[in-house]
Design brief:
Largest sheet: 8 strands, mixed
Shape: globular
Helix content: 40-55%
Number of helices: 15
Structural class: alpha+beta
């Protein structure tokens, strides 16, 4: 138990004062965990506070419109988490009387609640003995105990989960789980970990064998696809075409009509393409401006995007509706579109 006791002792002296650590309300804890998955604390905290202000209770979240929830989430990415958050809030209100189930297995059945999130909620809210395993925990355990099994394999996931559970202090599950995540976040960081002042230094396998930066091991290399998109802000009088996505990572968000090409093309090639002609064949078209290229990197794709401001008459796009240009900022959009909005004047 040397590792576990040192961990808790370190935490009591070094923990950050974060708003979700001052509550045992499972709704608050669940909200913070979903927001903070793959999001830094400094970025996630304003969203957490804004969500609680807009939706003080899970009932408020359940009763909100999807557009409102997605607009609040805008900029965080991984929009499926926001949709799952909304779905699960309604599920808990409709089927659990607005109260989170305390049963761990029942918790795992909630949409968007996986092994990690279920362990976080049950331990932080109810002090139940379930070990959390996130990226910070994997990195720390891999280095201290010299675990070389790739963490993104089924064998690796099982090994890290078993090790984490074995090290858990059952009667102090909440504080232990907070401690191990905090240690990974601010002490045993991915790059430039502070090994010189680390209390695990004397028995850390990675430190002793000079392999700190080689652990943890990942087996899969993600193939990144390049996409070349041209978004068309088509104005008719004071209205602009805008549509709501029905599939993909940006489901539920709004976007302009766009043309996609397999390679990078210039403006003349875009305007000579069959896709362009299908839209503007029977209309007068005046290109007001074309933006510089925006690069937007996602986990599996790298988007190269340009935004066109176009005045056009007689355009018909069945999948899109005409909305007032002055109301554009009211709709939830991707961070990519938001970045473009930041460079122009709207309204």
């Amino acid at each position: 138990m040397k590792f576990s006791n040192k961990l808790v002792s370190w935490y009591q002296n070094n923990k950050r004062d974060l708003p979700w650590r001052n509550t045992v309300d499972p709704y608050h804890i669940w909200l913070s965990e979903i927001i903070l998955q793959q999001t830094r604390v400094c970025q996630g905290t304003p969203y957490y506070l804004a969500f609680l202000k807009a939706f003080p209770t899970i009932v408020d979240l359940a009763n909100a419109s999807e557009d409102k929830v997605l607009k609040m989430w805008q900029g965080l990415g991984y929009y499926s988490r926001a949709r799952n958050l909304h779905y699960t809030a309604k599920d808990i209100v409709n089927n659990f009387g607005g109260e989170f189930p305390k049963d761990h297995k029942q918790m795992l059945k909630l949409k968007g609640v996986g092994v990690y999130t279920a362990a976080a909620i049950t331990s932080f809210a109810f002090d139940m003995p379930y070990a959390v395993v996130d990226g910070n925990v994997i990195r720390l355990l891999s280095r201290v105990f010299g675990v070389c099994t790739p963490f993104d394999t089924s064998a690796g996931k099982k090994q890290f989960q078993l090790l984490a559970q074995e090290l858990l202090i059952d009667k102090e599950a909440a504080i232990y789980n907070q401690a191990i995540m905090e240690f990974g976040a601010i002490q045993c960081k991915p790059k430039s970990p502070d090994c010189s002042s680390c209390p695990m230094q004397g028995f850390c396998v990675a430190y002793i064998t000079n392999s700190v930066l080689e652990l943890p091991v990942k087996s899969k290399k993600i193939k990144v696809k390049n996409r070349f998109l041209h978004y068309l802000m088509i104005e008719q009088e004071d209205n602009i075409f805008l549509g709501k996505r029905k599939s993909g990572i940006w489901t539920g968000l709004y976007e302009f009509p766009f043309l996609e090409f397999s390679i990078k093309v210039d403006e003349k090639q875009v305007m000579k393409s069959d896709e362009w002609l299908k839209i503007f064949l029977n209309s007068t078209c005046d290109v007001k401006s074309v933006s510089s290229e925006f690069i937007h990197i996602l986990s599996h794709q790298k988007i190269h995007a340009q935004f066109w401001q176009i005045k056009a008459a007689s355009v018909v796009l069945k999948e899109y509706e005409c909305i007032s240009k002055n109301s554009l900022l009211e709709f939830p959009v991707s961070r990519l579109t938001e970045k473009y909005f930041e460079t122009i004047e709207l309204g």
